[in-house]
Specification:
Blueprint lengths: L6 E2 L2 E2 L7 E5 L2 E2 L17 E7 L13 E7 L7 E9 L20 E13 L3 E13 L3 E3 L8 E5 L5 E5 L4 H14 L5 H16 L7 E3 L2 E14 L5 E14 L17
Parallel strand pairs: 3-6
Antiparallel strand pairs: 1-2, 3-4, 5-6, 7-8, 8-9, 9-14, 10-13, 11-12, 14-15
Length: 267
């Protein structure tokens, strides 16, 4: 879109970024809160993209600056498909600044993409599917030296076998464990209180981690699309599309502390 005249950094004809309406296969997908798209699609699933920056028809509404209309690919009588994979990693000799930057693993960052199209009923009913998974690991890594959540709770199953659970492994399960543990193991003696806090102190100071290097600024994205096309006649088609995207991420923030000393002398 940046190659289109009048479109600069998400702004069309000098308007705000939230004043552009986005359509996918004739359906508006603009978020009414911030003006961005509700869902994202894989660029390889795009058949045609149209940017309307001038006067647009009455069928397009809730837009001030312009319209971005995206048409996704359709199926055909021929069965076609493909699978693509590539990976990579960051590599540098500045290991005094970046942890583990001098170790190279070609599949640290992964991108897997596949598509399949064809016909269910030749000449009448077609399908097209596309999926893409991106697992990006940034250049900033940390070493897991400590694991404050590694306090284990011992219990017994129905057969009398001992079982353990590490707090912090599952947030939803932690709630039930804490309620059960608090009810069954009420602390009534000072010695019990000291024992519990000593276990917590040990986990914070003695290094219960596994020493593995983990990414501090990562993101994972999963895009998916499934499209069914029914050719009613030469001039009419009925299309049913499912589009899904799931994004999970973690930001790495560097906090810089600046100390300003003001000295005043009064004579």
């Amino acid at each position: 879109m940046e190659l289109q005249a009048g479109f600069v950094d998400g702004h069309l004809r000098g308007g705000r970024a939230g004043e552009v309406a986005y359509w996918i296969d004739g359906v508006p997908v603009t978020d009414v809160y911030d003006g961005n798209t509700v869902v994202d699609i894989n660029k390889n699933a795009v058949e045609e993209m149209q940017v309307i920056s001038g006067a647009f028809n009455a069928e397009y509404g809730q837009a001030m600056s312009g319209i971005v209309n995206i048409v996704t690919k359709d199926g055909s009588n021929d069965f076609r498909g493909g699978l693509t994979f590539y990976g990579g990693d960051f590599l540098s000799t500045h290991d005094d600044i970046f942890l583990n930057i001098n170790s190279f693993n070609p599949i640290t960052t992964k991108n897997i993409e596949g598509h399949l199209q064809g016909s269910i009923i030749p000449g009448k009913l077609f399908f097209y599917g596309n999926a893409r998974w991106i697992d990006f690991k940034g250049a900033y890594e940390g070493q897991r030296l400590y694991n404050p959540n590694s306090v284990t709770l011992a219990s017994f199953d129905s057969l009398g076998n001992p079982t353990t659970y590490i707090l912090g492994t599952n947030e939803e399960f932690d709630t039930f464990i804490n309620i059960f543990f608090a009810d069954q193991n009420r602390i009534t003696k000072q010695a019990d209180i000291d024992s519990m806090y000593n276990r917590l102190r040990t986990n914070h100071t003695d290094g219960e981690g596994d020493g593995e290097y983990v990414s501090m600024d990562w993101n994972r994205k999963l895009y998916g699309q499934l499209k069914l096309i029914w050719k009613i006649s030469t001039f009419a088609k009925l299309k049913y599309t499912i589009i899904s995207d799931n994004v999970d991420y973690q930001d790495y923030k560097i906090i810089t502390v600046i100390t300003v000393i003001i000295q005043m002398e009064i004579y």
